[in-house]
Amino acid sequence: MEYTQQESKSEGGHLARSVFHTYLNFFYWVVRPPFPLREIFFQFIRTMLEAFVTIFVGSVVMGMFIAWIGGWYGSLYGALSYIGPAATFGIIHEFTIMLVGMLYACRIGTAFTVEIGSMAMSGQLDAQRMMAVEPVQYIIIPRVIASVISILFLLGIAHGVAIVSTMVFLRLWFNISPEVIFENAFVFLKSAVLNQSFIRIAIMGFFVSLNACALGYYFSGGAIELGRTATKSIVINFIVVLIIDLLTGMFMAIFL
Fewer Cβ neighbours under 10 Å: the N or C end of the chain? Predict the structure, then answer.
């Protein structure tokens, strides 16, 4: 038991140092030329293509869930007129932010960890250093910047898909027309709520992608250890998404 505890503490310390050093290296190299625009564009297209289907399906399922809850209890308590504003506000203010943040951490964050960890395991990062190429500039920075940009587009897609999905399933399951839903749908929805949702998801995209890259960049070991590191990436970024969602939501509710 003592060995296991010491091993766990050592592993946790290594993770903390890896993430801390990656943050320092990111901010050190991001302001130094050359700026990898071509690689950023490539990573943007890649993250959009890889995450689109996951986000789309997740948004449809979330719309189904909201439609069932809203339609069932709205019919039960005679509150159908409140479904539109409640569903729209909830989707844009909270639900899609959490959905996109977590699914992005699963789909893209894990891919970053495994990909960069494989590079470290095969010696590709050391080879770049031998050629006087800084891996942070060409491996980490493009993925982080592309993630911040792509996650904004993915959130916009999730907003639209979730709202449309909610309307479709309310019509199918409870015969509630779209006119009823849209009658007061945007009464409580101000532009600030929409703007804040994009700010919050951009912060999530930054931390999720940088954490995932850090775990892969400082990886050492074999295939089994890489699988464990990928699992750690998911768990850590899940917690990070929850913390960021809570703190940014509280901050913007109080000060903005």
Answer: N
Kindly report the pTM of this predicted structure. 0.93
Domain boundaries, the chain: 45-255
User: pLDDT band at 147, cuts 50/70/90?
Assistant: very high
Length of the chain: 256
Question: Which residue type sits at 189?
Answer: L
Q: What is the DSSP letter of 32?
A: S
51's enclosing H/E stretch is helix 37-76
Give the per-residue pLDDT at 2: 47
Task: Record the tokens describing residue 116, joined without a space.
Answer: 């960069």
- pLDDT (tens digit, 9 = 90+) per residue, 182-213? 776 676 677 888 999 999 999 999 999 999 99
**H helix and E strand count, the chain:** 11, 0
Measured N-to-C along each axis, helices 191-217 and 96-104 cross at an angle, to the nearest 10 degrees, of: 20
Q: Residue 139 is which amino acid?
A: I
